[in-house]
Design a protein that fits this description.
The complex is a heterodimer of chains A (157) and B (176). Chain A is mainly alpha-helical and 157 residues long. Chain A has eight helices and no strands. Chain A folds into two domains: 2-92, Cytochrome C biogenesis protein (Helicase, Ruva Protein, domain 3, Orthogonal Bundle), CATH 1.10.8.640; 103-156. The radius of gyration of chain B is 21 Å and the shape is elongated. By secondary structure, chain B is an alpha/beta fold. Classes of the chains: A mainly alpha (157), B alpha/beta (176).
Chain lengths: 157, 176
Amino acid sequence: MPKVLLALLALCLAAAVHAADAPLTAADPELEAKMLRISAELRCLVCQNQTIADSNAELAVDLRNQVRDMLRQGQSQQQIIEYMTARYGDFVLYRPPMTGATFLLWFGPAVLMVGGLAALALVLRRRSRLGNEHFDPEELEDLAGPATVTPAVKTEK
Amino acid sequence: MKRWQFLAPLALFAVLLGFLAVGLNLNPREVPSPLIGKPAPAFELARLDDPAQKITHADLKGQVWILNVWASWCVACRQEHPLLVDFAKRNPVPLYGLNYKDKRDDGLAWLRRFGDPYKASLFDIDGRVGIDFGVYGVPETFVIDKQGVIRFKQIGPVTPEVLRDQIEPLLKQLNA
């Protein structure tokens, strides 16, 4: 399903780009697809939660043109990504690189989940080792005392 | 020890709150530029007021200079402009403009109307030089040293505080 959506998005964008410079797009759909693939990896700095493939901000349009030009000059995806990070920093990458500073970002959620599961397992294991007397039903009744007593009194009346 | 265990989630929550508080107070618009400490990109652009006359990065080497990215369509530029006009009047450091994705006539009219603090404005009609400078929000201001290295970048309008506390001391230091 996400793939279908992505394809649809790419189609829409292709149409939008098409409007900007029609002859070139029509001439080389393969280049255009590649351009969009790379653009989808790059963050638009004006509207920061969009990629430059998604965004119609003027800067995004310019950067898409830049990507297209560089592809036409035969540059690789790697070279284009490097060109962008040299100018806009790692921030421009939609998938941040793994560095010391981003370690928590990449692995934090996994660490939290493992920690949570470990804590849960620990608690459950400790409880399973407790004797039955720790789960005395009378104790529960004591705790809930007043609540259960009052209706009982009422029904007696 | 056992008695206080129930406070653990609260402590975790407090830590999380701390992270969120810091995160909320960061300005996501201020993306640290990787260009600081790097040589300013090469360029060759026509002057805004004279299409026949070109200015290149080499022409500006050997001096400390400021590049201010502006455009006539940029509202925030209007806000910082009086400050730049005033700065140019009392400061000998050359201020160059990069007229970013503008129309030549609009740019010139804008300068006539609000004053022209620039030694020259470079005409970057397609924004290519802007991209090389990592420009993403006009106005932006760069301080470039004698070796042609970018030493400072301001994203958004220059404020009197930034000018007084950051740019002017830096200029003094670079020109010392």
